[in-house]
């Protein structure tokens, strides 16, 4: 286990804030957050198009708003292989729409209301994600 | 008002993704590296999100209608089939390869990282492929 990078408190705090966002969207607009659906429908469907685009805009401007209230920078460390990132993006885009949800739609909104369908989806993508990292580390 | 609510929900959600470090692929890959140098932090993101959202979903959905729109509008699909499993598995593979899922990927566009932008573009290509071949999960 990696105790050096273990950051349960920011993770839990961020989780609470994500939960708050999901609740606000449900209470005010009557919809459950699922980012893959919102993103896909923003470009391919007429229904709720403007709402979906505004939600995506909110996601994109969030780091700027966060920076106004925080001194720390936002660090990310990401693969520098274009081939890998193209393959990963395609798999995520295709997979989430075939299964009807991603980490938010199935993992939070679905599990949050005890949907067996979403529990199975989440277990599946977690297991395959873990296996993918395991195999990738062997290569 | 519902437009403002969509924007606000997106911003709150994105801030949660930044604070929890879900936007950092290295962090996600550490979480998925169960058999290696495992960093369990991100399990706390899901816990935090569910602690807030799950009880409140059950209270809010008993209301007659949401505050800003006429009616609740969310998926009640309970189907568990191969499509759900296959899609989730493809998503898990992409998640394990790139370390990004849809929400964090879109939020990370603000960080102007060419590899995460490559991922996002491919993800949208994936959405279009599923849409054009009519493979989406029904809601």
Question: Could you give the topology of this structure?
Answer:
The complex is a heterodimer of chains A (139) and B (139).
Chain A: H1 8-29, H2 35-44, H3 49-69, H4 82-99, H5 105-112, H6 116-138
Helix pairs in contact in A: 2-3, 5-6
Chain B: H1 2-20, H2 25-32, H3 43-60, H4 82-98, H5 102-107, H6 114-132
Helix pairs in contact in B: 2-4
Summarize the structure.
The complex is a heterodimer of chains A (139) and B (139). Chain A has six helices and no strands.
Overview of the structural elements:
The complex is a heterodimer of chains A (139) and B (139). Chain A is mainly α. Chain A has 6 helices and no strands. Chain A has one domain. In chain A, 73% of the residues lie in helices and 0% in strands. In chain B, helix 2 crosses helix 4. Chain B is an all-alpha fold and 139 residues long. Chain B is globular, with a radius of gyration of 17 Å. Chain B has one domain. The chains are: A mainly alpha (139), B mainly alpha (139). Chains A and B meet through helix 1, helix 2, helix 3, helix 4 and helix 5 of A and helix 1, helix 2, helix 3, helix 4 and helix 5 of B.
């Amino acid at each position: 286990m990696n105790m050096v990078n273990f950051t349960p408190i920011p993770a839990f705090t961020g989780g609470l804030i994500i939960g708050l966002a999901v609740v606000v969207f449900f209470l005010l607009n009557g919809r459950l957050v699922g980012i893959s659906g919102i993103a896909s429908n923003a470009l391919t469907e007429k229904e709720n198009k403007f709402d979906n685009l505004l939600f995506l805009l909110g996601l994109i401007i969030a780091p700027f708003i966060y920076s106004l209230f925080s001194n720390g920078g936002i660090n990310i460390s990401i693969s520098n292989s274009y081939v890998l990132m193209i393959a990963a993006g395609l798999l995520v885009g295709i997979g989430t729409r075939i299964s009807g949800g991603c980490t938010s739609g199935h993992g939070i909104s679905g599990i949050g209301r005890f949907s067996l369908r979403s529990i199975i989806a989440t277990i599946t993508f977690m297991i395959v994600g873990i296996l993918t990292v395991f195999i990738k580390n062997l290569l | 008002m519902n437009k403002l609510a969509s924007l606000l929900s997106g911003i709150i959600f994105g801030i949660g993704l930044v604070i929890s470090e879900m936007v950092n692929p290295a962090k996600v890959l550490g979480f998925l590296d169960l058999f290696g140098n495992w960093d369990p932090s991100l399990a706390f993101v899901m816990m935090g999100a569910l602690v807030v959202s799950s009880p409140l979903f059950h209270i809010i959905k008993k209301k007659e209608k949401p505050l800003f729109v006429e009616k609740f509008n969310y998926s009640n699909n309970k189907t568990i089939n191969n499509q759900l499993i296959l899609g989730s598995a493809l998503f898990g593979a992409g998640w394990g390869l790139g370390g990004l899922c849809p929400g964090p990927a879109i939020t990370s566009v603000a960080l102007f990282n060419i590899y995460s932008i490559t991922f996002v573009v491919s993800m949208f290509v994936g959405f279009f492929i599923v849409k054009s071949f009519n493979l989406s999960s029904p809601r």
